[in-house]
Every structure is written in structure tokens, then in C-alpha cells.
Amino acid sequence: MQAGIVQRIFNDHFDAYRGNNILHSRERNAAWAIMTCRSEDQGYHIDACPNGDYQQIVYNSCKHRACPQCGATDTQLWLERRKAQALACPYFHIVFTISHALHIIWRFNRKLFTNLMMRSAWHSLRELLAHFKYLGALAGAVAVFQSWDDEMREHCHLHFIVTAGGLNADGRWVKADTEFLLPTPVLAAKFRGKFLAYLKQGFCHLTATGKEKPEDQVLRAPSGMSVQQCVNLFNKLGRKRWHADIEPAYEHANGVFKYVGRYICRGPISERRIVGYDGKQVTIAYAHREKHDKATFKLEAQSFIRRLLGHVPEKGTHLVRSYGLFHPNCRKKLNLARKRLGQGPYVPQLELPSVLELLRRMFPDQPIGRCPHCATELRTVFIYRGGQAPVWRLAA
Q: Tens digits of per-residue pLDDT, 154-181?
């Protein structure tokens, strides 16, 4: 099978990159997954026609988030779940951004930093939307954390998809103005205050009740910085203006969920954005926001690898969260909201399409899972689980 461009770049240059850099295990695992995706190392199975007309070898995908060859079916399944859960109302798209000065804290505390950032943003939204001046109700929201910009540089920010309405204390549906949800300066200031306060508390080893925190719940000061220097940085950023952008409401959920769905199960680059690779340099297309036009930039192959691996999340990090009416604990309120909007109850056990069905939808002109000669369903007749990983991937 022909390798993807990113896979070729890694196969050509990762050994040299590994020799020049000290890598975290998550980076080694991501690199191994990318280099072996859809190859014999990941395993394969043989599908055959029961009539003996045809057989094919299907190599397994690595299913790693950083691999641009994977994630399409997982993204579609996520969208199917969201469509089944969605409320029949407009949706706002809100983006929370932070100062790049905080990226050094994120590098050393990826999982906890992400958790605190998401918590701060949701608590800010929930409190303001509950106020009678604005909505006076509980909305539903889906949050997505993203750590990169179009050039794969560090740019930590949050996408929030928020219902343009919510349930009030009396159980009535309250509609929001589709042109205005919240004043952005107020939302940004509240987010700033909460996030910086949570970061300061993160360095404390004790909970509010005096109990020792688990190790993964305590922030680590970056190399070369003391805790006091981190606190000084937070105090300095607390005097600056932060940004939260709220776009006019979308008429329904499909469009905005499809937009953020691109970041759900994939890394910072897709194959279609790579427009050139000469064996040494990688040419990447991106949308130039100031010129409102498409542009390209070039990276040395090892710089490309560094940027891509720099965004691999820690194991166990939840980059997508559901809040408010969409939280699993709010199922009764969600169904009450659906009733108010003329929808039936949400049934999470509703059967989702299989991967095979999704692939057939995505590639309707191809005989996926069927014999190209007689159209009979293929059967798996042999499975190979894959080879042993190299020593460098398994190293501590």
C-alpha cells in the first residue's frame, strides 16, 4: 500500500530526529504509529469471497490521534452521536484564547493544564448564562481543546459549541438572542480570573480540606522557573486583556459540529494541506488570516516532525468535554429541553452505524467489504496481529 506523505517524512527523517533529541514516550509511540500505520507491523487480515472469486489483504490502521491517515471514521461516529443528542435550536461558537506566555506551563503539565482551562471556561460561561441579565438558564455545551495554529505552532485555545438557549429554574426553555449571547469583555475577564486562580491553586499540594493532593493534580514548575516566578507570571497576565470571541449563532448544530469535528480525532495536520515534499523540506498550505487568502510555508523535515510530535497529548487527556444539558448527569434535563423543543427523548443506546457502513457512505463508488466480481459480502479468513515493536519505542 502506498504510504501517506506524513508517513514518508517520518520514515525518511525520524531516525535522525530521534538521534538528535530526547523524546517522551508519548512522542515515540506516536512516531511508531505514524510510521507503521496500514503496514504489516500493525497487523492485517485477509478477506475472501465465499465463492472463491476474490481475496484481499487489509492492513490495520494505527488509530493514533496524531496520524493523519486515521480518524475519519471515528470523527463520523462522533458526529453521528452529536446529531442524535443535538437540540433543535441555534448554536453559538465561542473561542477562548490564552497568552502564549502560558505555553511553558502547558508543556510541563499538559493534562492538568487542559483540565483547568476547560473548567475555567465552562464555569465562566455557566455563571454568566445563569444570571438574569443574560439568559437566566442552563445551556448545553461541547468543548474541544486545541493546542496548535495553522502553522502547527503552539496556540492553546478552546472551542465551545453552546446552545442559543437553555432551561430555566421553572423548566421552561429560554431562547437567546441569536445576535448576542454575552458581552465578550465580561466573559474574557471572568475566564481570565478563574483560570489564573486555578493555576495558582494548582501549585498547592493540599486540598481545601487539608488533604494531600494526588501527584497528577499538582502543577509542576517548568525547568528554570520557581513556583514564585510562575505566580509572578500569573499576576502579570492578570493585568492584561484577554480574548473570548463569540460568533453569531448558527441556525443548527450540524455545521458547527462538523467544523470542530475536524479536530476531534486527528492531529495538527492533514495530508491534503501538504502540497510539497522534496525529501528535505515540507511545503504546507494554510489560510492567511490577515490577507484573507491561502498561503504556504516551508519547514525542514525535522522541524515538521518536532512540531507535529509537540502536540501529542498525555495519555488519558480528555480533549473533548460535554457540559450543562449535554453532560451525562443531566439526561433528565436534556430530555425535558428536547420535549420543550418538540423533540423525542435522547436514547444514547441508539444503534450507530458500523465502521463498514460509514466507509460505504464515505466511498459509495467503491465495493467496500464486497467482492468486486459478484458483490458477495467478503469474509475474514486470516488474521495477523502484527510484529514486535522496536526497542526505542519500548524504552522508558
A: 999 999 999 999 999 999 999 998 888 9
Q: What is the pLDDT of residues 282-308, one digit of tens each?
A: 999 988 777 667 889 999 999 999 999
Q: Are the C-beta atoms of residues 23 and 32 closer than 8 Å to each other?
A: no
Q: Are residues 57 and 191 in the same domain?
A: no
Report yes or no on 93 lying in a domain: yes
370 in Cβ contact with 377 (< 8 Å): yes
**Domain CATH for 219:** 3.40.1310
Cα separation, 377 vs 364, whole angstroms:
15
- Say what the pLDDT of residue 259 is: 82
pTM reported for the whole predicted model = 0.90
Does any domain span residue 302? Answer: no
**127 and 224 fall within a common domain:** yes
Q: Is residue 345 part of a domain?
A: no
Nearest to 110 by CA among 146, 134, 81, 67: 146
Does residue 396 register a pLDDT over 50? no
